[in-house]
């Protein structure tokens, strides 16, 4: 019983060490510059291109056209931070391969049930742990190789904070300016 818990503890520590680092802080929409590579969705269509103008509406040049993107509170924009390094791809691929392999091995081992006869007899739990470790290791190797050779790009969320100002008058006749702040 202790061996199983130790195996699970070792696997949990290994997975925690493989977790990708937290993403960079969001950039503000005001930080977008002409020439930045961005991606967003407009009417359900994915748009990837270069910023031509960061005014409202945002103008993005794609391979075939210039797309006007109105700045609204629900808009999600990401800015490219450049290509992903092979090491980052290797780490991401290793983590995904490890998780996929371990999960597959655990499910297959648990589903196969207890052995009742034969030279080696294992319980379903023992098979789940064993297959999880073996398939997790294999998945980590394959995932790491695929991740290292696959191209990729790093993206940073862009915070959209919009302000609107409008004049107003109170019932007493005072005049003022009302501000409305929207953020995603």
Overview of the molecule:
- The chain is an alpha+beta fold and 184 residues long.
- It is 38% helix and 31% strand.
- The chain contains 3 helices and 9 strands.
- It has helices at 2-18, 86-111, 124-149; strands at 27-28, 37-42, 45-53, 58-61, 66-69, 77-83, 153-159, 161-169, 175-183.
- The protein has a 7-stranded mixed beta sheet, with no helix packed on it.
- β3 and β4 form a beta hairpin.
- α2 (86-111) runs antiparallel to α3 (124-149).
- It is elongated and about 95 Å long.
- The protein starts with a helix and ends with a strand.
- The model is unreliable at 8-25 (pLDDT under 50).
Tell me the number of helical segments per DSSP (H or I, 4 or more residues long): 3
* Beta-strand percentage range: 25-35%
Pattern of helices and strands = HEEEEEEHHEEE
The biggest beta sheet is recorded as: 7 strands, mixed
């Amino acid at each position: 019983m202790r061996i199983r818990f130790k195996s699970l503890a070792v696997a949990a520590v290994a997975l925690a060490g493989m977790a990708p680092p937290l993403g960079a802080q969001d950039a503000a929409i005001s930080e977008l510059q002409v020439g930045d590579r961005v991606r967003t969705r407009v009417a359900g269509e994915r748009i990837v291109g270069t910023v031509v103008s960061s005014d409202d509406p945002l103008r993005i040049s794609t391979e075939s056209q210039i797309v006007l993107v109105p700045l609204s509170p629900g808009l999600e924009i990401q800015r490219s931070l450049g290509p992903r390094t092979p090491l980052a791809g290797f780490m991401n691929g290793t983590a995904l391969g490890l998780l996929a392999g371990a999960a597959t091995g655990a499910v297959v081992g648990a589903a196969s049930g207890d052995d009742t006869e034969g030279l080696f007899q294992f319980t379903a739990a023992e098979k789940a742990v064993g297959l999880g470790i073996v398939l997790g290791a294999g998945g980590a190797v394959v995932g790491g190789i695929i991740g290292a050779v696959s191209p990729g790009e790093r993206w940073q969320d862009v915070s959209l904070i919009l302000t609107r100002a409008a004049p107003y008058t109170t019932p007493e006749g005072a005049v003022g300016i009302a501000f409305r702040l929207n953020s995603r």
